[in-house]
Amino acid sequence: MNDSFLIESFLEMMSAERGAAANTLDAYQRDLGEFSEYSKPSLISAGPIDVRSWISDMENRGYSASSQARKLSALRQLYRFTFSEGLREDDPTGSIDNPRTQRPLPKIMSEADVDQLLLTAEELVNVSKKDRPRFKAARMHALLELLYATGLRVSELVSLPKSATRRDTRFLIVTGKGNKERLVPLGDKAKQAVSVYDDLLKTHDSPWLFPSSGESGHLTRQHFARELKSLAVHAGLNASKVSPHVLRHAFASHLLQNGADLRAVQQLLGHADISTTQIYTHVLEERLRGLVETAHPLAQARQP
Q1: Which residue numbers are catalytic?
Q2: Which domains are delineated in the chain?
Q3: What percent of the chain has pLDDT above 70?
Q4: Span 208-220, pLDDT tens digits
């Protein structure tokens, strides 16, 4: 079995049996193709020495530990597949340690900056008189209100079906990673913004809430990110610090700052593992420290 056929077979399995997203499959294909070029003569014959040499080569070329770990993870998945299919009797990645990674703190926006962004988006809807600018402003306002109200991944947001936000609904049904569905509460502000946008959308017969003439049929992540940068500039904010993912982080951090439970935030974000949500524990630590300083009897007794 040549490498190309092996990789395609693996990707088909990941798509059909595990519901891997298109972006995940693309990343796997790149990473496995890179190792295929590095390890000669083939993936089937590669051993632990080849894997270690590849990781060392990546380190020498300046790859971060997180990038090395991601590529090694793709390789591990492939060799588990070859073992389960009887193509190999061993796993050359089994004795390889993961590169040590230090997870950075998530970049977030302050509540004041988010409020300023949302207010600017709403004002642009109200001042726009012509149809096309008003439609684009209403779409951006709806996207922002939904994103900050729900913490959706940007890919989940732009691909929402039109049926997801019926006017009488209090929840969104979101299909996330691995085709897993979750319920996310929908606040009044978001519902109102979507309602205004939906009134302008009625001429469209697309099944998507945010339709586009592109290949996917809906607005792309990149297009939304570009328009968000422009809005940030209009709002007087540093555009380099504003992105859809930063707003998702803001959603989670602001919930925790205001007393939400970490498990509840995990469910809302669609994280399969609580360890992924624990990047926000620094927010909990700050809140707990503040509570002790303001509410503990001994702390109050020491105040002059």
Answers
A1: 153, 177, 245, 248, 271, 280
A2: 3-84 (1.10.150.130), 111-290 (1.10.443.10)
A3: 88
A4: 999 998 888 999 9
SS3 of the chain: the string is: CCHHHHHHHHHHHHHHHHCCCHHHHHHHHHHHHHHHHHCCCCCCCCCHHHHHHHHHHHHHCCCCHHHHHHHHHHHHHHHHHHHHCCCCCCCCCCCCCCCCCCCCCCCCCCHHHHHHHHHHHHHHHHHCCCHHHHHHHHHHHHHHHHHHHHCCCHHHHHCCEHHHHCCCCCEEEEECHHHCEEEEECCHHHHHHHHHHHHHHCCCCCCECCECCCCCCECCHHHHHHHHHHHHHHCCCCHHHCCHHHHHHHHHHHHHHCCCCHHHHHHHHCCCCHHHHHHHHHHHHHHHHHHHHHHCHHHHHHCC
Residue range 259-304, pLDDT digits in tens: 888 889 898 998 888 877 877 776 656 555 555 556 556 555 545 5
